[in-house]
User: Fold this.
Amino acid sequence: MTRKTEAQNEPTMPPERSLRALMQQLDELQKLKNRNYEEADAEETEWVHLTQNIIEAAFGKPSTNLTKFYAASHAGSHYIGGMSPQLHQSNFESRIKEFEALLRALIRALQLQLPEEEIKGAYDPGDEYAFYRDLSSIVAGATKGIFIVDAYVDEKVFNLYVDKVPANATVRVLSNKIGANVETVAKMYAKSRPLELRSSADAHDRMIFIDQRGWVIGQSIKDAARKKPTYLVELNELAVGALRDAHNRIWVAATVVV
Assistant:
């Protein structure tokens, strides 16, 4: 008797859309953390169905990624004959952990499939939108963390850029001059996402570090390309490491604002 194999369905969703969809599901997954398994059951079930459909559309069916998703959905310890509420809760927490690890890996895999957006790099006076477009596209690609160093920040850094950072990524902002409005907005953001704001008189540069990469900015973000020309240039690997380490040392000694 010939064994019947499952028909192969090719991916139906382009990588760009798949990436956005999985990043959204990763954000939604954070809402299930630290919940009681019974109270979160309906939301988890809805999340699982939608995420499975996205993975099927993104990678086809069958696929190793879909198999990994099935495995994550059965994480934990299971016994015939019933389980205690404590074990159900433990299994729920194990599933959330495995789901998160898998989605992060899938997001990274999709990012590698996409061509990097061409960054203009140099901006004339009045070219504010082009600067915003390029910097926001960089920020939106963060998966682990973002570290903004800018001597003069205002609310724009939160409203235009921090708001684009995936909710699972940590955000650190180091500045020299921090006004009351900036502190107020930062505190509101910190209620719903991992965000820290610190102040130091040693913060003079204008840089942004995202995951393992880094860029230097010609002007403070709030004024970039408004009245004067500016630039947004990626640092090489050696410079990224050295400059990140130097600013991390400033960060450790800086005054905690939020």
